[in-house]
Amino acid sequence: MAQSGNNNAQTFLVNVGVVLDLETWVGRMGLSCINISLSDFYTSNPSYKTRLVLNVRDSKGDEVAAAAAALDLIKNKQVQAIIGPQGSLQANFIIHLGKKSHVPIISFSATGPSLSSIRSPYFIRAAQNDSSQVNAISVVVQAFGWREVVLIYVNNEFGEGIIPSLTDALEEVDTRVSYRSLIPPSATDSQILQELYKLMIMQARVFIMHMLPTLGSRLFVKAKEVGMTSEGYVWILTNGITDQLSSVDSSVVTSSMQGVLGINTYIPNTPNLNNFTARWKMKFQQDNPSVLNPTLNIFGYWAYDAAQALAMAVEEMGVANFTFQMFDASIDTTDLDIIGVSKSGPKLLQELASTTFTGLTGNFRIVHGQLEWSTFQIVNINGHAARGIGFWTQENGLRRDLYSFSKSKYSTSKSNLGSIIWPGDSTSIPKGWDTPTNGKRLKILVPVRDDFNPFVQVTNDLSTNTSKVTGYCIDIFQTIIEKLPYVVAYDLIPFAFSNGSSMGSYNDMIDQNYDGIVGDISITANRSLYVDFKAPYTEPGVAMLVPYKDSKGKNAWVFLKPLTWDLWLTIGCFFVFIAFVVWILEHQINEDFQGPAGHQVGTSFWFSFSIMVFAQRERVLSNLARFVVIVWVFVVLILTQCYTASLSSLLVVQNLQPTVVDVDELLKSGANVGYLENSFVYGILISYKSTEECDVLLSKGSDKGGIAAAFDEVPYIKFAISQYCKRYTMIPTLRSAGFGFVFPKGSPLVPDISRVILNDTEVLKMMEIENKWLPPKSNYPDSSNSLDLDSFWGLFLIAGAAAVLALLIFMVMFVKRNWHVVASPSGSLREKFVTLGRRFYERDLNSHTFEKARFRDRNMDDGDNEIAAVETLENTNFPLSLSRDISQNNDDINNEQGMPSIEQGLSNHVDEGCSND
């Protein structure tokens, strides 16, 4: 430490080292930013007592030269800290010196993930770790549904450092890295073309590039030449290029990089940043007149902030003992053992770790030895520059607007990104997969079988020596492939089993060289150890195929089955009860319900039962009886309709019952059962080769050498039922995974095909295909249940309540009407009841019915008298006017209220005539 005097106070000079590649743009730009940073810092804080003194060394892009420069600075200049080195590989050499000498190494441009404070606590990265962007990259890939990518990176410490974390991030979103393309740092154009030709013959069309702008711009020029920047291709750049895009030749950007996506370290546009950029440009041009249009990038901003952080940490330490503990040089040892140890190093490292302020790039804060992660911007290169289309943050994922308030969770939706112009000036999202230029197609095996044709049918055309493959499994596979977000070219190759027959073990197919297997292949745990299955496309499970029992022997009494016995009995009782109620209500006033006892009983029952067919001849005259009959007619109407419907079902549809209802019944009976040959449900079962053979075995039955039930997977059982729907039924028994398409381990098709199968819309289409090849079983009911009393007790309750209520009302009215007969205190109770009974059995001549009958009879007698009177008048030659009066009186007689008699009318007329005279 040195002292320097000035007008205000004494300042203490602290030596720091700077190791940069001054022949590169980043090195020259970084050094100028460091100088301006210290100048701005001490100008703003003139009272500070410490001043940093820069000791600059040029590493000239060589790792050994960088290490030698650092060793010289520590040993001879006793620097308290070193800003730099520029690259990760150089930093790997120097951080060991910092660890030994306790001198903090502060780098603003060494972004390799392998560098960390774990390897050396005295290494501080005042920059973003390259791995901090891998999640942003993987989310972009996930948002557009790309399932296979190719990594292109420079073959050095910088390029390889990000690959492990990037691969892991892509695997977390179900994206596979199909190929890694390593480009040497000093690759020639021919080497770049040779590598690009390899990529062209691959199916993947999504390329993630991680390299520096110099090599990256050359690769894009060659990619343009071979047509790999046209429509259908996807290029995603890490911030290794996008953060320094301004240093790329503008002609390369406009001609070869259009439509490229990139991850860019986001720097908020602030007045302080704009002011610094203008001042730096002016200063740099003054110091370097040969540079016409200098451009500033993220590394310059980080260099500015790193220098300020170091100056602040030194000032916080105060006037400390900035000295080195030196070792005896006379000791026979290496130079590394005698470089000395900084006494203030640990304290300075602690101050740097706790230093926070608002820098050019935002909040400057060291976390675990490196700059805290910031936001990344998703950019789309159009024209001469990159256009921002969205942001990525650790908390919210993809967002269109960084500053808009949102309660949404972590988003991976492409809807949160702006419009994108893809390579080839296309606005359509590339599928990410295409048919390779070398014509390679997927090799898909299909089994050659004669049985169960609806699943896979292989037809050979001898004239053209070709095979045509169709069937349920084939239609499902073709439908799914068409729905994938990329193009898949494939050939269906028939596979004949090694035994020369049409039957064989599907395990033989799994051992072959293939890209996939399509057929009626069951998903089992053992097979999944060697291959990958996508989600099952058929109904899972193992079921029994069992025959129906015929119930034709019961047809003679089938008319009784629609109703249960308790319901039959209840209906009969109610018919009797309603007959009794109607007789009570109608006996006194209705002649139809009178007469001899046998006649009254027959009439009452006839009336009640004839309601069932609505053919009753007798009329009911009492309002109470009419009320009871209306309710009972309603009940009978519902009963007859239900009975008719149930009986029709029994007569038209056979009453089919399965012969076996569960496995326990089979085990108890000891009957034989069968299974499809070479199916995984085998062991103790009888095998059959076709549905026809299965039908024969089931028809024989277990007692005659056949089988009582057949076990197989649900799709096979459905096919058998579709052929013999009236004879067999399916009973689920065991669980299985169903049919699935087979692919080699790690195939990228598996997750995509599974997603299509699980999509609700595609499920409906696959059901249509199933109905085409495996027609559903006809709608034959397994049994016709009889109607029971529980279904109608409410109706009987209503009818019974109505009848009882009518009886109560009648009894009250009857007793009240005849109370004078039994009101006498004399006589026993028995005699009173006998008297009421006799009165009930007698006709009620005072009722409306009998009064109407008597009045009708009287009118008939009066009509005869009137005719005789008219004839008398006519014989005596009465005047015409008198005849009209008599006729008028005749009309008045028809009035039920009663009018003057004919004689009275005649007398009146005579009196009136005399009076007129």
Main attributes of the structure:
917 residues; alpha/beta; Rossmann fold; eight-stranded mixed β-sheet; six-stranded mixed β-sheet; 29 helices; elongated; receptor; transmembrane helix; ion channel
Quick description:
With 917 residues, the protein is α/β, with parallel strands linked by helices. It is 42% helix and 16% strand.
Spans of at least 5 consecutive residues with low confidence = 330-334, 499-504, 778-784, 872-917
CATH class descriptor name of the largest domain: Alpha Beta
Output the CATH homologous superfamily of the largest domain.
Response regulator
Under the CATH scheme, which architecture of the largest domain would be assigned? 3-Layer(aba) Sandwich
Our Rg estimate from Cα atoms comes to 53 Å
CATH topology of the largest domain: Rossmann fold
Q: Strands across the major sheet, in which order? A: 8-7-9-10-11-17-18-19
Description:
Helix content is about 40%, strand content about 15%. It is an alpha/beta fold and about 900 residues long. It folds into six domains: about 190 residues, Rossmann fold, CATH 3.40.50; about 180 residues, Rossmann fold (3-Layer(aba) Sandwich); about 90 residues, no CATH class; about 130 residues, Periplasmic binding protein-like II (D-Maltodextrin-Binding Protein, domain 2); about 110 residues, no CATH class; about 70 residues, no CATH class. It has an eight-stranded mixed sheet, sandwiched between helices. Strands 1, 2, 3, 4, 5 and 6 form a six-stranded mixed sheet that branches.
